[in-house]
């Protein structure tokens, strides 16, 4: 019961604030490098890195012109994750023992890049590499965004407004209902009092009748 309530709350929450979606995990699906930058050794050390995140070394990638496929469960996976619609500056690099590391490519990696329904995004650079990435959640989020259309932020505002309208309407409805019940109760009390008064008066009249029948006039009061 509590968990169902929680999930309902989180769905409403996500509906109102899509920017705060849970992290969307990105895995590396395949990689082929066309070149190695290292002159002295034949086996390169290739790694992936996004701005201000740690390096992800790809230990299997040793040869150029070989396509490496990944299951997404390797020890270095996931490569990164997106916590908002914001892009990250990421790249593939090769460690260099002497000078600065070599760059295969560095680019703006965005959740919106994942447009194909199977959640795949291919990024390649001539004479450098061809990489495919997987991010299912990015596609789901993209679909939601597309449903909202161009005026995404506008609609988002509407979502919040609807939420407020529903809350205000239910509060006003409750107040009206309580007022209705109160008025009905007051009316019922009034009716009841009137009925009691009528019965009381009737009782007096009956008593007067009995006294008259017994022939007891005002005299009886003085006895
Ligand atoms: C997102 O990725 C960062 C860095 O890759 C990691 O430290 C963090 O735990 C991840 N968060 C989630 C929720 O997976
Ligand atoms: C890159 O790799 C993908 C998946 O292996 C493949 O479908 C695509 O044709 C490749 N692109 C190039 C330019 O080699």
Automatic annotation (TrEMBL):
<dbReference type="Pfam" id="PF25829">
    <property type="entry name" value="DUF7953"/>
</dbReference>
<feature type="transmembrane region" description="Helical">
    <location>
        <begin position="162"/>
        <end position="185"/>
    </location>
</feature>
<feature type="domain" description="DUF7953">
    <location>
        <begin position="23"/>
        <end position="135"/>
    </location>
</feature>
<protein>
    <recommendedName>
        <fullName>DUF7953 domain-containing protein</fullName>
    </recommendedName>
</protein>
<dbReference type="InterPro" id="IPR057713">
    <property type="entry name" value="DUF7953"/>
</dbReference>
<keyword id="KW-0472">Membrane</keyword>
<feature type="signal peptide">
    <location>
        <begin position="1"/>
        <end position="23"/>
    </location>
</feature>
<keyword id="KW-0732">Signal</keyword>
<keyword id="KW-1133">Transmembrane helix</keyword>
<keyword id="KW-0812">Transmembrane</keyword>
């Amino acid at each position: 019961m509590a968990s169902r309530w929680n999930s309902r709350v989180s769905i409403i929450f996500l509906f109102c604030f899509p920017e705060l979606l849970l992290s969307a995990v990105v895995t590396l699906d395949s990689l082929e490098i066309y070149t190695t930058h290292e002159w002295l050794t034949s086996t390169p050390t290739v790694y992936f890195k996004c701005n201000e995140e740690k390096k992800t070394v790809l230990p299997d990638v040793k040869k150029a012109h070989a396509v490496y496929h990944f299951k997404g469960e390797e020890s270095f996976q996931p490569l990164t994750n997106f916590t908002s619609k914001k892009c990250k500056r990421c790249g593939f690099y090769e460690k260099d023992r002497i000078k600065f590391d070599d760059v295969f490519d560095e680019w703006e990696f965005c959740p919106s890049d994942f447009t194909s329904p199977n959640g795949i995004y291919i990024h390649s650079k001539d004479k450098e590499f061809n990489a495919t990435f997987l991010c299912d959640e990015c596609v789901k989020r993209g679909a939601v965004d597309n449903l909202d259309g161009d005026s995404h932020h506008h609609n988002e505002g509407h979502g919040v407004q609807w939420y407020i309208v529903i809350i205000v309407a239910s509060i006003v409805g409750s107040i009206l209902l309580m007022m209705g019940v109160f008025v009905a109760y007051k009316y019922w009390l009034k009716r009841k009092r009137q009925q009691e008064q009528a019965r009381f008066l009737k009782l007096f009249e009956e008593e007067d009748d009995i006294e008259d029948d017994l022939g007891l006039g005002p005299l009886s009061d003085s006895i």
